[in-house]
Amino acid sequence: MASHDVMPDIELYQPSTLDDALDLLDRYGDEGWLLGGGQDTYGWLKDRAKHPKAMIDLNGIENLRGIRELADGIEIGAVTTLVEIIGNSLVKRDFGLLSQAAARVASPQIRNVGTLGGNLVQDARCWYYRRGLSCYRAGGNLCYADSPQGMNREHALFGASRCVAVSPSDTATALVALEATMVTANLEGVRLIPAEEFFAGPDTHITRMTSLEPGEILTAVRIPSKWAGRRFYFEKVADRNVWDFALVSIAVAMAVEGDVISDARFVCGGVACKPHRLRNVERAAVGMTLSDESAATLGPLASQGAKPLNYNQFKLPLMENLVRRAMRG
Amino acid sequence: MDLATYKEDIWGREVILGASWELLWLVVVSAFVVIALHAVVLAVRRRGARPSSAGPRVARHSAIDRLFHWIMAVAVIALLITGVLPIIGLEFSWLTIHWIAGLVLTASVVFHIVRSLFWQDLKSMWISARDLKEPFDATIRPGKYSVAQKSMHAAVTVLVLLVIGSGLVMFAMIDTPWWDRSNSIAESTLGWVFLIHGLSTIALIALICLHVYFGLRPEKLFYTRSMIKGWISKEELEANHDPERWAPGKSS
Predict the structure, then answer these.
(1) CA dihedral A175, A176, A177, A179 (to 10 degrees)
(2) Is A135 part of any domain?
(3) CB burial of residue A192 (10 Å; 0-12, 13-18, 19+)
(4) Which domain holds residue B219?
(5) How far apart are CA A177 and CA A276, in angstroms?
(6) Do A32 and A21 sit in the same domain of this protein?
(7) B141 to chain A nearest CA, in Å?
(8) Same domain, residue pair A189 and A98
């Protein structure tokens, strides 16, 4: 497949209201493409692997931008850039987990233009799929990555169902840990979707990464105050420190009363098609203190139930060690 | 309208991807048109009095055959729901239910084949030259099964064997509790397997529409009752069957 340096011929729309954007999306259907920061989009289009007729640029819609304080938490517009989130004092003070995760996305240049919405709804990075091959995720009838010669070092340990691609989003893990709610809109109205249900696995939605329906736009993310100011831990392991996707990442939110953990959410990225909650670790962590002993107990629980592929067994100790590091005092 | 859809394989060659699911709508609409026409024709035709279900009874289907029929029916319905709804846009976690239902269907069909070959009268389902005259000659009455029932059975046999055969190949392409998928079948071969599975499924849907329709028609309802309770009345037997070709024992 040829790769091109220039964009294909495409209609560009720059609506200034959400209603206009929804009308355009409705009009173009499958042939409309929503544009946030463009960091996922431009690769697809320049590689000629996707062929939309119209691009609907959401960046001119003021309602979709900015960070607002709510009665219970905060709301972040979907086209708020990652760099705005990283620098926002409210996010930094109450939801540092999201700041840390956003700060590890790609590179400074990409974070300057990349949006929260774009980071959350970006497509799978499996190179067979990105190369335009007709795999399950592209509507085909097989998986090239999980084949005898398939290269699957970056692929899933959990929740694979025919497709073994993983969720590439760093902010997704943090938002699942923070029990965020996704606000979506279509011509009929608004839908609120818990972050954990927003991301979809291949067992139900093999050709998309989220439960966004056709004609629907992610408009904002709400983070409740439940976890505000709690103890957080985020770490991302990648082949290089910038401009790379996670091999494995972990986002942890913990409520610690005295020295004892009273509630916790452990979420791993890079190991499943959606942010992967470590429920057995969460259950076991309650009542423990942050210590090397607790870390040693919880670490092995992280990889329970994993189904490694030919080349990604190394992710098992990586997950376990990330849990251990999160549990150190 | 195409029978198949196509894609490029990893080498850039055009290969079959699977069945064209637009055919589903064509087949379903056609089946309902046939059903509607049949219903109208029979409605305007004068009919005699239906035989009574009261009086002495004769056994038509043994308990084991009825059990097989309904297990197969449940498995096929589960397979159609889990196989077709995601294709037409209703997405849910279907794959595990699908292959479990597929295994139930396979096991029940294997059981039926073995039982038919060794413990049942296989010839009662064969279509003979005499059977073919049955629709055109009112003096010819069927044995245990009419030519329509035998034809339905033959068509369902072929289609179910095709879906099971192709389904088993596809089963090898997914992870199960017993093995990890090999994913090593050539893409062109796999396309044919998906095509056979899809087309036979679409044809089965049409046959099931007809089967359910005929099973619910007032004059045929006694056959459905016999598939539930096992018996028909002696009057129904004499009105619809040739006692020389089918002489069942009396039912308790």
Answers:
(1) 90
(2) no
(3) exposed
(4) 4-43+121-240
(5) 10
(6) yes
(7) 49
(8) yes
pLDDT digits over A135-182, tens only?
A: 999 999 999 999 988 999 999 999 999 999 999 999 999 999 999 999
- Based on the fold, state whether residues A16 and A79 are members of the same structural domain: no
Q: Would B99 be classed as within a structural domain?
A: no
For residue range A193-238, what is the model confidence (pLDDT) as tens digits? 999 999 999 999 999 999 999 999 999 999 999 999 999 999 999 9
Alpha carbons A111 and A119: distance in angstroms, whole number: 10
Going by pLDDT thresholds of 50, 70 and 90, the confidence category of residue B183 is confident
Domain assignment present for residue B185? The answer is yes
Tell whether B7 lies on the interface with A, counting CB pairs under 8 A. Answer: yes
| Residues 198-217 of chain A whose Cβ lies under 8 A from any Cβ of chain B | 203-205
Closest Cβ opposite residue A141 in set B10, B18, B93:
B18
Read off the tokens for B179.
């093995």
Which residues from A are below 8 Å from B182, CB to CB?
148
Ranking A38-52, A92-106, B123-137 by mean pLDDT, the lowest is B123-137
Contact B190 A142 (CB under 8 A): yes
In B, residues 119-138, which contact A (CB 8 Å cutoff)? none
8 Å CB contact of A141 and B95: no
d(CA B196, CA B4): 10
In a domain, A140, yes or no: no
What is the residue-wise DSSP string for B62-106? -HHHHHHHHHHHHHHHHHHHHHHTTTTT-----HHHHHHHHHHHH
Which A residues 113-142 touch B at CB under 8 Å? 133-134, 139-142
Q: Is residue A67 part of a domain?
A: yes
ipTM for the complex? 0.87
Q: Which pLDDT score is estimated for B251?
A: 45
Q: Is B17 on the interface with A (CB under 8 A)?
A: yes
Question: Is residue B105 domain-resident?
Answer: no
